[in-house]
Design goal:
The complex is a heterodimer of chains A (about 475) and B (about 260).
Chain A lengths: L1 H18 L49 E13 L9 E15 L3 E12 L16 E13 L2 E8 L19 H6 L10 E8 L5 E7 L15 E3 L4 E3 L14 E10 L2 E11 L5 E2 L6 E2 L2 E13 L2 E12 L14 E13 L2 E12 L2 H7 L10 E13 L4 E10 L4 E11 L4 E12 L14 E10 L1
Antiparallel strand pairs in A: 1-2, 1-22, 2-3, 3-4, 4-5, 5-6, 6-7, 7-10, 8-9, 10-11, 11-14, 12-13, 14-15, 15-16, 16-17, 17-18, 18-19, 19-20, 20-21, 21-22
Chain B lengths: L1 H14 L1 H18 L4 E11 L5 E12 L7 E9 L7 E6 L6 E6 L4 E4 L16 H5 L6 E8 L3 E8 L9 E7 L5 E7 L5 E13 L2 E11 L4 E12 L10 H5 L3 H4 L2
Antiparallel strand pairs in B: 1-2, 1-13, 2-3, 3-4, 4-5, 5-6, 7-8, 8-9, 9-10, 10-11, 11-12, 12-13
């Protein structure tokens, strides 16, 4: 009975909604108009009688210098391992993060300073480590940008830099990444780590050039064993908090360059990089301390609309400069990398993408010859397939997504289901899982199997 | 012979006159809504209300430039100011009325220029009741228009999609103000002939000589939510250069044109 009443009420309200379109009579009209006809909105009724076109009634244009803008975000995040791991703590994340962002601009220049104030309840120390983003403050951005000439942009200071076409797979982008943040389940915004750099961009009709000079090498924020355990190939055992990787940092800098332009709707780019491997890819023959050997890379990418979606292709060659013929087993060999991707909308608010990626050791026979007879040689090629599916619901306030990596050559993988919900314009909650699996302990994802974790977060934004 | 040819041409054109008129009316409505001046900009406040009455706000600056003649290609640059979690995100669209648009999104926290694969223009624009197409304009070439009625103030058009499977409506009806060519109201109908979505122009201001809808509302009649858009500081022929609509200015927002 009650149900029927509700139904009736709903039906009535629907009818009322439709009938409600019958507008009020436009002023000055005697004849009853057809019932759906809208009344003239303010501004049109007077149009005929208006002698002079009325100029903008809005406030007058203001000065060109914007005031200081401050934005604040407070985030609480907690994560736990899904299984016990003898090499690490059970808790993966337990932190409060207050981000304050100051920005402003004038006609001549603009700036932005983004500071993360961190209370990390799992850290052993709150000492500041700008390179690893540890300690009670992580300055993520502090840059000034200017346009000294029409065709030049300069950006100087601590900044995040990104280019290339891959999704969580990188070939041309050799700017520092924060793999710990990704594997532990921080916001995807934290995937990129900052660099202290000078970025110069030159623009012309024929081609655009970007040059990023980093005076002091910034490595990736990689897995050190502190939070996530890893497989140590040298000792053939797992290691974690008992053997935290503390590599020797080179004193030199890095230079990255990109030339890019559009060909119709297609984006083409070529890239050069001279610097170091972004993760410890070598070790000292005497002390066995991990280090970052020199490396240079050349690559190219192409991205364009294709079959109702976007296709991208990217390929590159990394040359290991401290081991050019690949005969030193202590230093990572030169390698080629290739990526093919496609993304399209599958249905309303449902997007799917796929990537095929491989990396191939360049001087494989030299490497094999140099390895001790007892050592298991690595596979020459590592292939990875990825897929990302994103569904937005409830007026796009609820987002469900999954990103999956699978390597048919290593027979390992990584699943990243994630859900986030915008409760309102200020509050956002999210949760997710980082699930690693593999047949062997020494493969890229397989080594993290016992570090699989789940996380929860709550974010409050203030304007 | 000559005469009969002339007669048949005359008859032919007379015969197609009303269809032609409906198309012209629709073209003029699209010009009045999306092609005033050579370029334009505005600060847009969006208020999304769901059926429970909960509100969400969005604020963005929109820059528009016509790349060709009226009803041809256009470029849009949308720079978000509110809410905080999307602030400073920039969105670039190269609109091609008869082909898929090119869309890029810039995420400042990652310094990432993403290409958007979305080909469906009838999906919600930033979670509102407006679709992408409502913001950037649906090409009048995509529908067959019929003049249903002419009233004192309005032409009433019925527009049927040429590609029915590409859209969610079976037709829409619009009330186009005769003097200004402004669509004052549009109703979208489903296959059962029932209206499920309504657009209303709530306020018109004449800016730089162009009558402009500065307040509008889209209502979802089924789920009973609505979104209102308010355009402030509308300005036409602001001198927006073509190069603003490029990756350069996605990464480095053109403050000069965004703060006004």
């Amino acid at each position: 009975m009650r149900f029927r009443l509700t139904f009736l009420l709903i039906a009535l309200s629907q009818c009322a909604g439709l009938l409600g379109q019958a507008p009020s009579l436009p002023p000055g009209l005697d004849d009853a108009p057809p019932k759906e006809e809208p009344s003239l909105p303010p501004g049109l009724a007077e149009l005929d009688t208006q002698v002079e076109p009325q100029v903008d009634t809005n406030e007058p244009a203001q000065r060109r210098t914007s005031k200081l803008r401050i934005r604040t975000t407070l985030e609480a995040r907690s994560g736990t391992l899904l299984q016990s791991n003898p090499y690490s703590d059970d808790e993966a994340l337990s932190e409060l993060r207050l981000q304050t962002q100051f920005s402003g601009s004038s006609k001549a220049a603009s700036y932005r300073v983004t500071l993360d104030w961190i209370a990390d309840f799992l850290a052993d120390t709150s000492a500041i480590d700008l390179r690893n983003g540890q300690g009670w403050i992580d300055p993520r951005e502090a840059w000034l940008s200017a346009q000294p000439l029409d065709f030049i942009d300069l950006k100087i200071g601590r900044q995040i830099a990104t280019w290339g076409t891959g999704d969580l797979l990188f070939i041309s982008d050799l700017f520092p990444k924060d793999w710990q943040a990704l594997l532990l389940g921080r916001e995807e915004d934290y995937l990129k780590a900052p660099s202290d750099a000078i970025k110069t961009s030159l623009f012309s009709k024929a081609v655009n050039l970007d040059l990023v000079y980093t005076p002091e090498f910034d490595p990736d924020r990689f897995v050190t064993g502190e939070r996530i355990s890893y497989f140590d190939t040298q000792s053939d055992t797992f290691a974690g908090r008992n053997r935290i990787v503390r590599p020797d940092h080179p004193s030199g800098g890095e230079l990255s360059a990109r030339a890019h332009r559009l060909f119709g709707a297609a984006e083409a780019a070529v890239y050069l990089h001279k610097g170091y491997w972004k993760q410890p890819a070598g070790s000292d023959p005497v002390s066995s301390q991990a280090n970052f050997p020199r490396m240079e890379a050349v690559s190219a990418s192409w991205r364009q609309p294709f079959a109702g979606g976007i296709a991208n292709i990217e390929a590159g060659h990394y040359r290991s400069l401290d081991d050019t013929d690949g005969s030193n087993p202590r230093i990572r060999n030169s390698e080629s990398r290739f990526l093919l991707g496609f993304e399209r909308e599958l249905a309303t608010d449902l997007t799917g993408s796929m990537q095929f990626y491989f990396e191939r050791i360049a001087d494989y026979s030299n490497l094999r010859a140099a390895l001790p007879a007892s050592a298991t040689p690595p596979k020459r090629t590592r292939q990875v397939l990825t897929t990302r599916i994103t569904k937005r619901m409830l007026m796009q306030n609820l987002q469900l997504s999954i990103f999956a990596f699978y390597s048919p050559t290593d027979r390992d993988g990584y699943l990243r289901p994630h859900v986030s919900y915008s409760i309102n314009d200020q509050w956002k909650a999210s949760a997710g899982v980082n699930l690693f699996f593999g047949d062997r302990p020494d493969t890229f994802f397989g080594q993290f199997e016992d570090s699989s974790n789940a996380y929860l977060s709550l974010i409050r934004s203030f304007d | 012979m000559k005469i009969s040819l002339l007669v048949s041409i005359a008859l032919g054109s007379a015969f197609s006159a009303s269809a032609q008129d409906a198309q012209t009316i629709a073209d003029n409505a699209a010009k009045a809504a999306y092609y005033q001046g050579n370029d334009g900009r505005a600060i847009v406040s969006m208020k999304i209300t769901d059926k429970q009455g909960r509100e969400r706000q969005r604020e963005f600056v929109i820059l528009r430039r016509d790349a060709g003649q009226d009803l041809e290609d256009q470029q849009f640059y949308v720079y978000f100011r509110q809410p905080a979690d999307v602030a400073d995100t920039a969105f670039l669209v190269r609109k091609r009325p008869l082909a898929n648009d090119d869309r890029w999104l810039y995420l400042p926290a990652l310094d990432l220029v993403r290409r958007i694969a979305a080909s469906d223009e009838r999906t919600s624009f930033v979670g509102s009741h407006f679709f992408y197409e409502d913001v950037s304009g649906r090409s009048p070439q995509e529908d067959r228009h019929e003049l249903l009625e002419e009233t004192e103030h309005y032409y009433v058009l019925k527009s049927v999609p040429k590609q029915a499977d590409a859209v969610e409506f079976s037709y829409f009806k619009s009330w186009i103000h005769k003097d200004s060519s402004i669509a004052v109201k549009s109703e979208y109908y489903d296959d059962n002939d029932s209206a499920y979505r309504t657009y209303e122009a709530l306020k018109v201001e004449t800016i730089n000589g162009h009558p402009t809808v500065t307040h509008s509302k889209m209502t979802d009649l089924i789920r009973s939510g609505s979104t209102t858009l308010s355009y402030a500081r509308v300005e036409y022929d602001a001198g927006l250069a073509e190069n603003i609509f490029s990756e350069r200015y996605l990464r480095n927002p053109p403050t000069e044109f965004l703060e006004f």
